[in-house]
Amino acid sequence: MAESSLTYAHLRRTILALPMRVRLLLGLLFLLLLSFVTFQHSQNPTPPQRARDFHASTQEPPRKSILDDDWGKVHKDWQARPDVKAALLAGAGYTDYGRAAEMVEEYGAEIKAGEGKLRGKIGGDAKEEITPITNQKPKAVPPIIPPAVVSELKKADAASSVSPSKDSKPTLPPASTDKSSSSSTPSAWSHTSHIFAFGDSWSYTQFDIGGVQPSLTNPFGNPSLPSDGTTSPPEWLHYLTLTYNATFTRTYNLAHGAAPIDRACVRPHENLAFTSTFTEQVQDLWRVVYGPHPPSAKWNADDTLFAIWFGVVDLSLAFDRNEYTEELLNVKTIAAYSANLETLYDSGARRFLLLNVPPLDLAPGAPDDSAKRAMLKTAVDTFNTALLTLAHTLHSSHIDITLQLFDANALLTSLMQNPSSMEQTKNIQNTTQNCWNYNPDGVPSTSRWERYDEECGVSFDAYFWANQLHVTHVVQEGIAAGVVRDCFGRDGDGKGEKGFCEG
User: Fold this and answer.
1) In terms of DSSP H, where are the helices of 321-439?
2) 99 within 8 A of 87, measured Cβ to Cβ
3) How far is CA 151 from the centre of its chain?
4) Which of 181-185, 217-221, 438-442 has the highest mean pLDDT?
5) Which pLDDT value is given to residue 2?
């Protein structure tokens, strides 16, 4: 330290001994050198800074549209706003709904002037159809434009002169429906602009509540579609939201992989203790983030569906640990399930869709021992009966709710016996096994399931099971199609076939 001080003092005396003119010249040179170094640094920023600058340069400025301001108000009644409908039809080729909606403001007068002619083409007798994406490559992202809008656009010229029979019933694969026989007041499904989903790995899409929120141009918010979830992407919620929807819908998916109903009843897997149970999804996520109607989720009781699918993890873990008892699963766990539904009701939820437990005894991961497999089937059936009783009890306690229970167990059992019974699953060839080459880690990823593996014998989308416990994306689509067909009616008129739907 002393040596350093002496050196500095010596340098200072040396500089002061120089003539004033020389000192000024040295100072000027120092300033020029400093300026040059600063300029060079600005032209070659550090790697993190370069990354931030590149990211900023690739982001488009946010577009403000009337739809983003209040979608529910603009589309509260689809038929009552032919000007908006016309604008959306005219812009159906866009994936930017904001641009299509802004046409209302730009060309509102012209659209209104031609309203009579427009109604003649896309009015009450227009046909609609559900366009499945089964025949597309698995990696294809589900269509963002609602099928009803695209269908009306394609059939606008023919719809006014062709009217299907009033006796025809909606079926899947797509069939014509008589719109004129529908109720004058559209059902809740045709006005569903928000879905809040709760569940386990059968519904998990890796949504992060702290990330990008659902919007008109990005219905799931995050992650980018299709996600690489525990089941094969896309999943049943993707199809429900993007393919079989009756209007534009935002989905807030709070489901989490490996989630039981309540950890006080069935504790999560030891390696997945961080998962969010049904109770935690409701209490910690829903009530805190979305229950208060934040700007990112302007939901209301009429335009919002609460989709809930639990029970797989509870039954699987209870059996694996030899902890299964009817008291645990069908009393305590169902009581926790009921408490969460009551919490949602108290928060304003009025429309519920519940799905029961799939046929776990038919999954590739079911016990090899026939007696244990039979016990598992009995346990699943008993749980599903308890869930049905819960649904009836809740409905009788709250006459102001709409509650539908979809029998996923019966649908999947039926599809395993006869995959060709639905358009979405007609190409399935293997209903009893999964092929590990498509998902060696147990988790299908895009890089694996979009390719063909010779050892597997058939393509991934020809399998019913993606892994030991989850179904492939084609079956996921079948689930979504079945929900709409049986619970809501194909065109959203509420006249479902009720084949696998109770309520």
Assistant:
1) 326, 333-346, 370-397, 408-417
2) no
3) 23
4) 217-221
5) 52
Q: Which residue has the tokens 């009783």?
A: 389
Contact assessment for residue 191 and residue 303, using Cβ atoms and an 8 Å cutoff: yes
Report CA 213 to chain centroid distance, whole Å: 12
Amino acid, single-letter form, for residue 329: L
Longest distance between any two alpha carbons in the chain, whole Å = 109
DSSP string, 167-195: T----SS-----GGGS-SS--SGGG--EE
Is residue 135 scored above 80 in pLDDT?
no
Cβ count within 10 A of residue 139: 13
What value, to the nearest 5°, has the Cα angle with vertex 450 and ends 445 and 451? Answer: 115
User: What is the distance between the alpha carbons of residues 287 and 294, in angstroms, rounded to a whole number?
Assistant: 11
Q: Which residues contact 414 (CB under 8 A, 6 or more apart)?
A: 421
Q: Return the H-helix or E-strand segment holding 252.
A: strand 250-253
Helices (H), 247-289: 278-280
Structure tokens at 200: 């386990």
pLDDT of 305-341, one tens digit each? 999 999 999 999 999 999 999 999 999 999 999 999 9
User: What one-character DSSP code corresponds to residue 22?
Assistant: H
CA nearest neighbour of 423 among 173, 138, 132, 130: 173
- Least confident stretch, 5-14, 16-25, 292-301, 465-474: 5-14
User: Which pLDDT score, from 0 to 100, does residue 140 have?
Assistant: 40
Q: Would you state the pLDDT for residue 166?
A: 32
